[in-house]
Amino acid sequence: MASTVSDNEDIAALIKARTRHAIRASVIAAVLDDPVGVWRLLELPAEELGRRIRSHLWDVSGVATVFNYDLPALREEGENLRKRYERIAKSRKDATELLSEAEKANPERSQLIRQRKVLCEEDFRLATNITKKKLEKDVAGGRVFSVDFGGEPYYPAFFIPKLFDRNDFASVFRRLDGLSAWSKWDFFTSPIESQQGATPLQLLMVESMEQVLKAADAFVNR
Q1: Alpha-carbon distance 139 to 170, whole Å?
Q2: Domain limits of the chain?
Q3: pLDDT tens-digit map of 35-91
Q4: Which domain of life is it from (predicted)?
Q5: What is the pTM of this model?
Q6: CA-to-CA distance for 39 and 54, rounded, in angstroms?
Q7: Whole-angstrom Cα distance, residue 184 to residue 145?
Q8: Which letter does DSSP use for residue 207 in this model?
Q9: Which of 1, 97, 129, 133 has the CA that lies 20 to 30 A from 17?
Q10: CA 187, CA 166: separation in Å to the nearest integer?
Q11: Count of alpha carbons within 13 Å of 100, Cβ hemisphere only?
């Protein structure tokens, strides 16, 4: 009897963990798809937000029924892809196990590269589908910038999705003239206490230019 109770508790815990994972994955997908829209959703009353989520869950169930999707098979396929990716990532890591001097000296910056938050020029141009000439023009105009790591330029991945006006970005970028490229990275990605922890990038998304420019001046003069 005791064993049955324990098994039931384990199953309940597993179901709870899988539910949390599913909700978290859905939230991440929503944020990546429409980050501004997600902010608007957070302004809704909890009951209304819950109703909308429930409605979308039923929509997915309906679509799966209409098209006869095998959801367990899709989950299995996703798990197999994840394992395959991990094997590939591990093989790539093994191939570059010897860290460069730059990586040893700058572990935090190195982590940004590993997390693909900054990309080498080739990957960045592929992701943005632009030519080398166009990239050079954007850099010259302050609409894009690169950071240096190990003597090579890396470009912030936050330029890939079109979440803010590049000309607005250039206006702020000019305020940071004289700072190192990594300091500029730190400015754009660091929370601003006076703005409830929003970063300059997040403020640019909602076109709060005045607040971003003030923050830039404060950052330069600190």
Answers
A1: 10
A2: 107-220
A3: 667 767 777 788 887 777 766 766 665 666 555 566 666 667 667 767 776 776 665
A4: Bacteria
A5: 0.60
A6: 19
A7: 9
A8: T
A9: 1
A10: 16
A11: 11
